[in-house]
Every structure is written in structure tokens, then in C-alpha cells.
């Protein structure tokens, strides 16, 4: 297969559309822009009054107080008013004002008129403030219980509550039945939680049960409208139609079939394998197993190498076996002897209790039918749920070609950044030399030298500051810094600018997946916000089996990528090997699911936890893989042949599996481990509190407008709700913030905020509390929400007519040069020989706020 060039429509190709589960209307229901507009009017009136009052106070003191005609009562009245005017306090139209007015009339009629005018301003200000307080109370009453009503009125919201938060659902129902009110402490806390769910389900598109959905969007050459990345064949708005759910048991818990063995249940489908990471150490056998006291951690287990243990090891050396087959191999002619089976079962149960062997049951799943809206019984407890939609969305090939043009500029900019960035490496690579060393031996040596080892932190938060002041990247940042900092402004990175900076011409020598937020068509405006560029086949991996079961065929993205890998194998003569790393946590266990991209796998022998179906495969134990260094290249081999490890999962492994992955991925293709996140450009400018939107080629938004908001710009600790409301409104106007933003502490998880809503106050309080708990002294980061509500391109049929859904696209860039030049496609490591370093984690240029 010769992959097409970037932007060319692949025959039968399709993009993956990631959709918010809830329409944005539900989130916007918490907004009250009229109330914040009234606050702006009140603040403007207060400002005008203070200016007028100060002017009048000075005039009273200069012209009226010294006059001898004033009686003592009149002078006291004038002095009291003068002090009130200096403080900017609204004065009432009382006896003091009338006395001062009479006194002013003796000397200057214009002074009396000015006094009447300022008193009228004070009266108007008091009326506005009274109205503001009244409407603020009305708004608070309106919001009481509103997120509960919104979620319960939504079929998707109801399904999400039943699936994700059944205990919260039951608690709220119990409290309401007992007569509790929403303004009570407990239900108010529940309401805050529900608002966060509404924001998560309406403003974010990361697939998560019923709150985030997926659909395929085919590439088409002939739509009526091709000036946007999401269109339809007839040019009408794209529609998300019927939904279907894919329910799957938790692969973390299904891997532990120990109880089935103990209870003597049906074991015909139970597979048994050794734990993936093990090695002999003298007279002992060392295994790294899950800690039963904390399943998110691993621990070392050492056993004496007995003949019985050696027999089990040999039987399972080449991969997992079904329980009956394992008994047959170990017992031979004694398989039918009940006593022998009982003794062996007891021994295997003991090994399974220690974690040295892992019995696993079949992962179960089911696919529901297509519905217009979720059925009432959509809550499924501990199962994982992915939701898919049918729809009319397509990706116009013409827009895809424009996107491909912009991505060439993005690649050049990435090369400019990388040339200045430090290499990110794992210290285990210092053990790699010219001699072939088995992977477990290197891991064992590393752990012996680092007994307190913890996973190093390698991710960068935002764009990096330049290391070399004379680098092209440093000059690029200087040019950005010199651009006018205007509200609503945009800075564009053109090809001509990259030429001036001597940015290298860079091609995509490996396929890459791009995550974008499409923007509505508008002449001269960008096509989308580019959130991330990552290795192919990772972000979509978990969902491919569900798409296969619903459509009856594997997605084109899977088929084409698999063919690409096979063609590289044919030309280069090596083999790709998939690295399977066991899930160590129950909450995100199913993130390890993936399609079959290659028939060879290593790491965890228990493949059933990872794959939706099981074609004939070959297991390559870790101890059969050796790693060596040849100049700048790290090479992995098995049985004398080259292997290229690849890893298709979004989860970062825990120690010591991260050490294993560092060794293996270094010997794999660089394009399969390198990625970029382009949000967070403000991090490169520590002296600035605002950065405008940055685009590339006027086709893609690389970084949305950002603001640093310091806590002292918000409110003091202990401020009452009215003070917080007024402080937020003033912050928005003073900093010229957009109404809709994502907000987070530096490096934190972004939260969608409607800055014209009262729920935003509680969410900001929560962000400030999290910041304080982490002893973070830095500011909060605000980023414009783009596209904003009202700019969304997909309409929903599961709710009210014309409801809009937030959407993301996952598009794959094929390799630039195809496979006509094998050396251009050869997987390589690019490890500097001098200091034995290599990049083993994706090079993340920045951290996108909306990710």
C-alpha cells in the first residue's frame, strides 16, 4: 500500500467524530447574562456617581463651607455631605441635602443644581443596586435544583447518572423524598456536583460513557459545501442521530479468575499465564505482580525455584494456556487422577494468590441496538460503556487538502521547537551498550541500582521557554512577543515567517493522528483548532472493537494502518511487536483495549484483556527480546531478527512496566511515540498575563487566546456570595475575558466555565481550593472556548430540535513519502551516542486546555 499524501482522501477513508453527550443548551441554562449586564450597568452608574460626587465634594469644600452666611446646622449638613461624597457613598434625599441645597442657593445657583443632579444619580444608583440584589436572589432560587431537572429531563443525562453516579442518584432521590430543600448544605453540594457533570457532558468531547459519544464521518469528494471540516452531502447541518451502546466488563477485574478456581466452577474457558514481567535470579524466581493491598501498584515476589515451579514456568513459557490444556501438559497420563488434579490445582491456586500466575476469564461484552434515545435501563453498574451515534456528517476532501497544507507548516514549527528542546530520556538507557541484553536483565539491573525508583515526570506544561537565545525557536518567540497585544487579536504563523526563521522543511515520515475542534465556515477564518498530534492508532484504539461490532467490519482507519505496518515489514525485513502492559487500575482499565495491528505481541501474555477478538497470534516473551546500541540507533532483536516494538494505548504504565516500555519504545519507530499538544503558548512568556490567539497559515488555530488570572484578582478568602458575584463581573470586564472559557491551575485539568453564570463562582472556588491544597502559588489559566456555543456544527436528535453538540474530529495524516523510499520509512531511534539518551515519551510541545 502506498499511503496518499496529506489531505488526499483515502478510498473509503473516514474520520472519527467525538461528540459531547449533552447539548450545550443544558449547560447554558445555568447562565444569566442579563444579571451580569445589570451588574455592569450598576457598576458603571457607581463609577459615574463616584466621579460626580468627588467633584462636588471638592467644590463644596472650596466654595460653600467657608461662607460666613451658613448657619451652624447648614455647615454641619454640608460637611457631612462632603465626607459622604468623598467616600463615594450614595446619599439619601433627606433634610441634610435640603439644608445644603438652600445654603448653596445663597451663593451659586449652579452649585445647587449640581447638588440636585448628584443626589439624583445617588437615587438611581440605589434603585439599580436594589434591583440587582432582588434579581440576584431570584436567580439563586431559579438555580436551586436546576441541574437535577436538566439531567433528569435528558435521556442521555438520565442514563449517565444511572451509569456513572448511581449512589449520587439514590442519595438525591432519598433526600428529596424526605423533604430536604436544595438550599440545604448537602443538596447544595450535590447541585454543585451535578453542574460539573453538566459541564463535562456538554462542553467536553472526550468519550466517557454517556457523556461522550463517537461516530464515523466518511471522507467525500462531492459535498455541496466544502469550506469546513464537518459538512453533509446536501449542505444541511450535520446531524447526530440514533445511538447504540457497547457494554464491556471491566478488564481489570475479569483478569482475576482466582475465585472460579477456588470454587471449582467451570474452568474450560479460563486461561492461565505467567505474569508478564519475571526473571530467574540464582536459585530464585522473581515476579513483579499486582499488590493485593493496592491494585494500582506492583510489588516484587521471590520464590525458590522448585521443580514444580520450574514445570509451570516451562509449560507457560510461550504464552497462555486454557486451564484444561495446562493440566494436561503438567500431569500427562495422570490428568484423570482426581488426587493429582487436586494437588496441582492447589499449587496453581497458591501461585495465583501470589500473582505469579494469572488466571483470567473471558472479557464479556454486549452491543445494544440503535435507539433514538437511550432506554431507561441504560445504567449498567460496573461495566464500561461506550456510546456510538449514527449521523450525516462527512469530511469534505477539499477541506481535508487545505488541512494537509496547514499541517506541513505545523510540522516545520514542531521541528523548530524540537531543535531547541532538551531530549527526554529514561536512565535505563544508560545500561544499553553494543552487546545484546535481554530486556528483563536490563530491567533487573536498573531496579537493583534504583531501589527507590519512581516514574520520572517528563511532560511539559505549555510551550517551553527557549534554551538557546539564538535558536530559531527563540527568535520565533521574540517575533510573537512583539506583536500588538490587542483584545480579540490574532497572530498568524505563515510559511514566509518560517522561511525567515530557517525552519527546516519537514515531512510526515510516519502516519499521525490529529485531534481538532472544527470551526464554522467563514471566509478567511481557520478551519479548526488543532488540539494535538499524536502517534497513529492510539486515541481511537479503545473504540475500534465497538465500531467493528456495530458495523460488521473493521474501521478503515484500522485496516489501512495495519496494511501500512505490513508494507513496512515487507520492505524493511523486520517485524512489529505490540507491547501489552497490564492495567493496574479499575477506573481506566479498559483504556488498554486495542485492535490487532500485528500478529506478534510481547509483555503481558494475557491478550484477552486487550483485544476484542483473537486471531492466530504469536507471543514473544520479554526474555527473548534483546536490546543493543549501534551508534545512534537502539536495536531490538528476537531470535536474530529485527523487531520494532509499538504501543497503542493511552495509559502511562506504572513502575516497573514504564522501564520496560522505555527500553522497547526506544527501539521502535520514532513516529509511533512522538506527539505534540499545541495549547498553552502563554507558558513561553512568563512575564505576560495575556496572549492572543495564534494561527498557522490562517487555516488552523494552534493556541487559543489565554489569560493568567491571579487569585488576588478574584476575591478574598471568606468573601460572601454577593461579593464573589460582583468580583467576577468586574474581572471579566477589566481583563476583557470572553464569556466562555476553560480554566485550570497550571498543569491541572481544565474546567469549562460560563463567566456569566452563578455556578461559575462555586467552580472557581473549587479551583482555588485545589490550588491551595497543592500548595500552588501560581495563577489560574483561562483559555477562550473555541468554538464557542453558537458556533457548533453538529445538531442532536436525542433532545430538543436544533440542539447543538460540541464536536471533535480525529483525522489521520498518512506518511508523506509513501513507501517508495524505504530508508525514509525505516523505524529508527535517533539516540545520541555520546550521552546514551533518547526520547522515550511523546514530545509534548504544550498542554491543551480543552483536552
Plain-language structure description:
It is a single chain. With 851 residues, the chain is an alpha+beta fold. It contains 24 helices and 33 strands. It has a 15-stranded mixed sheet that branches. The protein has a 7-stranded mixed sheet with strand order 13-20-21-22-17-18-19. It starts with 13 loop residues before the first strand and ends in a 26-residue tail after the last helix.
Task: Chart the SSEs and their pairings.
Layout (H helix, E strand, L loop, with lengths): L13 E7 L3 H5 L4 H32 L7 H16 L7 H13 L1 H35 L2 H8 L1 H10 L1 H12 L7 H19 L5 E12 L17 E11 L2 H4 L3 H5 L8 E4 L3 E4 L2 E8 L2 E11 L2 H9 L5 E2 H9 L6 H17 L2 E4 L4 E3 L16 E8 L3 E2 H24 L16 E2 H11 L22 H10 L8 E4 L1 H6 L11 E7 L9 E7 L9 H8 L4 H17 L2 E6 L19 E4 L14 E2 L5 E6 L2 E6 L2 E6 L10 H10 L9 E2 L12 E2 L1 E4 L3 E4 L2 E4 L11 H15 L4 E6 L5 E4 L4 H15 L6 E5 L9 E3 L6 E3 L1 E7 L8 H4 L26
Parallel strand pairs: 2-11, 2-12, 3-31, 14-25, 16-26, 17-18, 17-22, 18-19
Antiparallel strand pairs: 1-2, 1-33, 3-10, 3-11, 4-8, 4-9, 5-6, 6-7, 13-20, 15-16, 15-33, 16-23, 20-21, 21-22, 24-27, 25-26, 27-30, 28-29, 28-30, 31-32
Helix pairs in contact: 2-3, 2-5, 2-22, 3-4, 4-5, 6-7, 6-9, 16-21
Protein name: Lantibiotic dehydratase N-terminal domain-containing protein
Organism: Longimycelium tulufanense
Pfam family, one: Lant_dehydr_N
Could you give a short description of this structure?
The chain contains 24 helices and 33 strands. The chain has 851 residues and is α+β, with helices and mostly antiparallel strands.
